[in-house]
Specification:
- Helix 3 packs across helix 12 and helix 9 crosses helix 10.
- The chain folds into two domains: about 140 residues, Response regulator (Rossmann fold), CATH 3.40.50; about 130 residues, Rossmann fold, CATH 3.40.50.
- With about 325 residues, the chain is an alpha/beta fold.
- Strand 4, helix 6 and strand 5 form a beta-alpha-beta unit.
- The chain contains twelve helices and twelve strands.
């Protein structure tokens, strides 16, 4: 009998040890228990990576993460073209599902992305808006506050427009504007900046159309503008891709050197065009640092340190005088 009792006791102790061994172990599921807390994951969601401005933005963010690899990990995303809103919304939802700690986003549309970003914030994710500011009325309707980290696009466009106005003194006072996507706040602000500069100088805007940030569409529209208004003295493009489209249109029309062109973004190709005299000026909003500014704000919020609702970043006029020799 004693033998059976001892055997039963041994079996019982073994079973208890086995069950205890199957229980959760904090050391395997909680990195902090090993003195190595898990680094926050930051998702960068941009517009079209086919646009050099955003590929430059991505490289700047990746370089920053490499230099601060002990502080956070980075997930970089972009969409096929500027109008692919549904894909950008899907990217936000995918990042929420993957459990990132923060989303830094350059929205393709100032209104359409707000509901998805509200859901991200409700899931406990830090959200920082860069480049293109979200619509304040929609943010209020959705009862959500999302900090904006980026340049004053109106002021930047005004600087470019003022420089053009000085260059046009004594020539035709008629110009045309190539706008960005009209539902984007940065497109609206750049248009207002261009308009303000032209109004102050007494220069007439004879045509203003949206080329949706795209070079090929800008080429087509600019060609039509030049045909309909042969006395146009300049074209103001709300980004450099559209400015390059205008350069091609001016060349095709046989008016190279006659029609002045300005842009916005300071991509590599536009710097070359400025040096060659094909483009008069552009605005540099420091694309390689813009995402970095947003990432740093996100990391600040993750630490529990509040970020201002509007953090203004630099935007500078770029001309042949300001460009260094390559």
């Amino acid at each position: 009998m004693k033998t059976f009792l001892n055997l039963g006791l041994c079996l019982g102790l073994c079973l208890f040890a086995l069950l205890a061994g199957c229980g959760p172990k904090s050391t395997s599921t909680d990195p902090a228990a090993d003195g190595a807390p898990e680094k926050p994951r930051v998702a960068l969601i941009m517009k079209s990576l086919a646009n050099e401005f955003f590929s430059t933005m991505a490289k700047g963010a990746e370089q920053h993460q490499a230099e601060h690899s002990d502080q956070y990990t980075l997930v970089v995303n972009g969409i096929k073209d500027e109008r692919d809103l549904s894909r950008q919304v899907s990217l936000v939802e995918e990042m929420v599902a993957s459990g990132v700690d923060a989303i830094v986003i350059a929205p393709a549309d100032s209104k359409a992305l707000v509901p998805a970003l509200r859901r991200a914030k409700q899931a406990g994710i830090v959200v920082i808006n860069i480049d293109n500011q979200l619509d304040q009325d929609i943010l209020q309707q959705e009862d959500v506050v999302i900090p904006f980290v980026g340049p004053d696009n109106l002021a930047g466009a005004k600087k470019v427009g003022d420089h053009l106005a000085k260059a046009l003194e004594g020539s035709s006072n008629k110009v045309a504007i190539l706008e960005g996507i009209r539902t984007s706040f940065n497109a609206q602000q750049r248009l207002l900046g261009f308009q303000a500069a032209m109004d102050e100088a007494g220069i007439t805007i004879v045509d203003s159309q949206s080329a949706e940030w795209e070079m090929s569409k800008a080429n087509t529209i600019a060609s039509s503008m030049l045909s309909e208004h042969p006395d146009i003295a300049a074209i103001l493009a709300a980004n450099d891709s559209m400015a390059l489209g205008a350069v091609a249109a001016v060349k095709t029309a046989g008016r190279s050197g006659e029609v002045k062109i300005v842009g916005f973004d300071n991509i590599t190709a536009i710097q070359t065009a400025i040096r060659e005299g094909k483009v008069l000026a552009t605005a540099d909003q420091h694309g390689d640092q813009l995402a970095v500014f947003g990432i740093e704000a996100a990391l600040q919020e993750i630490k529990g340190e509040p970020v201002s609702e509007n953090v203004e970043t630099p935007v500078d006029l770029v001309t042949s005088q300001t460009l260094s020799t390559p």
